[in-house]
Each structure stands twice: as structure tokens, then as C-alpha cells.
């Protein structure tokens, strides 16, 4: 296939269109895309190309004015694709039955939800509250979290795509803040002939860590990866041709590695749960002055004790002379790429819901969406959330089977 340079970002959606244009929807969905208002969020859930596919299959899309602007998609592009432009957020929520967001709803947005709505968005475990969950329960919302969507192949498709972006971006960020003009010590990540490269230490050995390691190796950095899952470490070593150094994340190895690290990337996480805190404050204090921490799992609580959430407009703070970058939505900084990634996962799910005849029938048939649902028919359906907030839960398969 002859790919011209300016066509590359479109290939995914072109392939998607060829595969999905022919679908027989049982019902017409009314999908709402409100403009994101929180934490410098610049992504949107669907591209104009995705909207055109949904319209071709009989579904209606209502998008708030300027909702795609930060991802460089104009209202005209969405209108040309068949979307109806809404001139207020209230109009989106009134006309739509399915609300597709990136960030979790704000308090004001929660007030706009009612029992006719199905919500698809991230949950951000690190910031989620019992009040937020209880509000969704009381309003009888069907809530599906990006972090929980898992298919029969045991993959988390949205999480994986965002983690690929996050891992690559984390190294770019670390390299940027090592520069003297950004408060760093003035070190080039890859070094040059006769001068050794910087050291990048990655905590965790999952998807984010893999893509961070690939990118760091591409820069020419020396890369250490630490985790307590030996199987993951072996997999990563083999995938990267043993060009990285791995070690278990025990106190002795971790303390020693931190003293030599120029960039620390926190990527330790467990899917659907809060991140384990692996680095204590005293460990951070032992790091070199001017070194950089990029905590990529801050949206799940962070894996470094000195981390606290920041935003794109003010992304860093310094503690113990170490620069901390702790923005929860790192992919938002490449909003257009991230929006294509979200679109390519979400469009097939919307078509599946339409084909099944509604969300209830689709949850019974579709493993990924069933796994993704955390509130259904006034019940919390995720045991991990029930444990975090000490709330009762009901298994979603039992709820669906009992026709509640």
C-alpha cells in the first residue's frame, strides 16, 4: 500500500470504514459528544470519520459546539459527516441517550444525567469518590469505564492504546525537562560520542513501560526496568532483544537505581485498581538534583509517594530538588492522535449496541462492554471499586440474567 506522508493518521479510520460500513442496526442510537471542560482535556471520543460511519448505520450524533476544536476537528467537519451541532451542553444531554466523554463527568455534568443515559468515559480511579459513584447509582445510570473494558482476549483496548501513547510521551517529557531551560541539569538523554547517555529508570513492565523503554532506547538512553513480576520482565527483555537491564523492584535494587537515575518513569499499575506506591519520599530525596519524575499512573493514584496531580497548563512542581511531572491525561497533549485511537475502539462498540437492539441486550452478548460496566440498574458492579469505597456490589451477569 502506497502511503503518502500526509495520509498516515487517516489509515486507521479508512480501514475501519471499509470493515464497518455494512451493519444492520436494530435500533437508532442517539449519541452525545459534550465539549470536555476538565483538567485541560483536549481529546474527544469520535472523529468526523467515526460520525459518518455511525450516521451510515442509522445512528444520530449530537456534538456540542467547538467540542473537537482542541483536537483540530472543526464543527464544519462534524456537520459534513452528519452530526447535529448543539449550541449548549444542556442540549447534548437532553437529546442524547448515550453520552461519550473522555474525562469523567464534572459535578455540573452529573446533574445533567438522568436514568435514560448510558455513560461511556474514563473513571480515573485516583480521583474517583464514593459520592461520584453513589450519584451514578442513585440516578440509575448505566456507566461504562474505559479502564475496565476488557475483551475475550483479556486485552484492555482503550487502556492499551492510551498507554502506548503515554509510554512514548513520557520519555519525550523526561528529555524535555532535563534541559537547562526547563530547570534540569542540562543533560541530553541519548548522549553523544565519548559522553555516556542519561539513565532512564522505568517502574513497571506493562504496556506503558514497554513503549517508554522502546522510545528511550530510540533516544540512545541507558534503560532500567524494575517490576516484581518476573514473567513480565522476561517478556519485556525478549521483546526488546535484551537491550534493557531488568531487576526486581525490591528495596535494595530500587534504592540503588534511584540514586543514579536521570529520569524516573512511574508506570507500575494493576488494571482496574489503584497503583501500588513503590517509591517513598526518602527515596525521592536520595535522587540527583535536577532529575525528573514522570508519574504516568497518577490518574490511578500514582506509584511515587511525592506525586500529586498536575495539569497541562502547569504540569510540573519540584520537591527535594527533583522535577515532578504528574499530569493524569498525558495523551491529551497529542489530542488528535489520541482521538483517532479512541474513535477506532469506540465506533465498533456503538455499532454493536445498535446491532444488539440496545445496551441491555448488548451487555449480555458483548464481553468487553459487560466487563467495562461499573454501575448498572442502581447497583455497583465492580468488586474492585466496592473494596476501595467499602460499598456493596452485585455481579452484572446476575443482574442481567435476573432481568432487573
From TrEMBL:
It comes from the Bacteria. InterPro entries: Ala_DH, AlaDH/PNT_N, AlaDH/PNT_NAD(H)-bd, NAD(P)-bd_dom_sf. Its EC number is 1.4.1.1. CDD domains: L-AlaDH. Residues 32-166 form the Alanine dehydrogenase/pyridine nucleotide transhydrogenase N-terminal domain. Keywords: Oxidoreductase. The keyword Oxidoreductase applies. Residues 178-326 form the Alanine dehydrogenase/pyridine nucleotide transhydrogenase NAD(H)-binding domain. It holds the Pfam family AlaDh_PNT_C. Belongs to the AlaDH/PNT family. This is alanine dehydrogenase. The lineage of its organism: Bacteria, Pseudomonadati, Balneolota, Balneolia, Balneolales.
Amino acid at each position: 500500500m502506497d502511503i503518502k506522508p500526509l495520509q498516515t493518521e487517516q489509515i486507521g479510520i479508512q480501514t475501519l470504514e471499509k470493515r464497518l460500513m455494512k451493519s444492520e442496526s436494530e435500533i437508532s442510537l442517539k449519541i452525545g459528544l459534550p465539549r470536555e471542560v476538565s483538567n485541560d482535556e483536549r481529546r474527544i471520543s469520535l472523529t468526523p470519520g467515526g460520525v459518518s460511519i455511525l450516521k451510515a448505520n442509522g445512528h444520530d450524533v449530537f456534538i456540542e459546539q467547538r467540542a473537537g476544536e482542541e483536537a483540530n476537528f472543526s464543527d464544519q467537519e462534524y456537520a459534513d459527516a452528519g452530526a447535529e451541532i448543539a449550541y449548549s451542553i444542556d442540549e447534548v444531554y437532553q437529546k442524547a441517550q448515550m453520552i461519550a466523554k473522555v474525562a469523567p463527568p464534572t459535578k455540573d455534568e452529573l446533574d445533567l444525567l438522568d436514568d435514560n443515559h448510558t455513560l461511556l468515559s474514563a473513571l480515573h480511579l485516583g480521583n474517583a469518590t464514593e459520592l461520584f459513584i453513589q450519584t451514578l447509582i442513585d440516578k440509575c445510570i448505566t456507566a461504562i469505564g474505559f479502564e475496565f473494558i476488557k475483551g475475550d482476549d483479556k486485552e484492555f483496548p482503550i487502556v492499551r492504546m492510551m498507554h502506548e501513547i503515554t509510554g512514548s510521551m513520557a520519555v519525550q517529557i523526561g528529555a524535555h525537562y532535563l534541559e537547562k531551560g526547563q530547570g534540569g541539569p542540562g543533560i541530553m538523554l541519548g548522549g553523544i560520542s565519548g559522553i555516556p547517555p542519561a539513565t532512564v529508570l522505568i517502574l513497571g513492565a506493562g504496556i506503558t513501560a514497554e513503549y517508554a523503554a522502546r522510545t528511550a532506547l530510540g533516544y540512545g538512553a541507558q534503560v532500567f526496568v524494575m517490576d516484581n513480576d518476573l514473567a513480565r520482565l522476561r517478556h519485556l527483555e525478549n521483546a526488546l532483544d535484551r537491550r534493557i537491564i531488568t531487576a526486581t523492584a525490591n528495596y535494595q535494587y530500587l534504592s540503588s537505581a534511584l540514586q543514579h537515575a536521570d529520569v524516573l518513569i512511574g508506570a507500575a499499575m494493576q488494571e482496574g485498581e489503584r497503583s501500588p506506591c513503590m517509591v517513598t519520599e526518602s527515596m525521592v530525596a536520595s535522587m540527583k538534583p535536577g532529575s525528573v519524575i514522570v508519574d504516568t499512573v497518577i490518574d490511578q493514584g500514582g506509584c511515587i509517594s511525592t506525586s500529586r496531580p498536575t495539569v497541562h497548563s502547569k504540569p510540573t512542581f519540584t520537591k527535594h530538588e527533583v522535577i515532578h511531572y504528574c499530569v493524569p491525561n498525558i495523551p491529551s497533549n497529542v489530542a488528535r492522535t489520541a482521538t483517532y485511537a479512541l474513535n477506532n475502539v469506540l465506533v465498533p462498540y456503538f455499532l454493536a449496541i445498535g446491532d444488539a437492539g440496545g445496551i441491555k441486550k448488548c451487555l449480555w452478548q458483548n464481553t468487553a462492554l459487560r466487563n467495562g460496566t461499573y454501575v448498572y440498574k442502581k447497583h455497583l458492579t465492580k468488586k474492585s471499586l466496592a473494596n476501595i469505597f467499602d460499598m456493596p456490589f452485585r455481579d452484572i451477569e446476575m443482574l442481567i440474567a435476573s432481568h432487573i
